[in-house]
Each structure stands twice: as structure tokens, then as C-alpha cells.
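Suppose a colleague, Dr. K., hands you the sequence of a protein chain of 90 amino acids and asks what its three-dimensional shape might be. Before reaching for any lab equipment, you can write down a predicted structure in C-alpha cell form. Begin with the sequence itself:
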Amino acid sequence: MNQIINMIIRQVMNQLVRRGVSAGIDQAGKIGKRRQQQPQGEIDDYGNPVQQPQMTREERQARRQARQQRRLDTGNAKQSMKAVRRMSKF
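The predicted structure, expressed as C-alpha cells, is then:
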């Protein structure tokens, strides 16, 4: 009887630990996204507003391509983490 109780407790504790690790990883990812989205300095060292130069079409395309590549990389990382979590269940 004692072995059965220990087995059940071990399974429950493993699930709780996995959920805690997953929640921590998700929170860390959210913090990184918030830091990236903060606006860059729009005021120079002397307190004067800085005019942003107009981007050319090529620059906009390059920026869009880089953003799409980051999304793909993030998606691959998420898929990898899901696979690791699935494999660690056993």
C-alpha cells in the first residue's frame, strides 16, 4: 500500500515540477519580448528631439524580412521546447 501511495505522490510531484518549469520558461519569454519592444531613445544627449530619417523601400523590406526570420526562429524554439516537454513526461 505504501508503495502505491509513493508512486502516486511521485507522479503528481513530477507533473507539478514540469508545469512550474513550463510557466517559468513562458514568463522569461514574455519578459524578453517586452524589453525588445521598448522605444529607442528619441531624445539626444542634450535633450533635443531627434528626427527619424525616412526609410527607403529596401530598408523596409530588409527590416520586414528580419522580423519574419525572427518569428520563424521563435516558432522553431517553441516547437523544440514542446518536444522536450513531451519527451520529459516519460
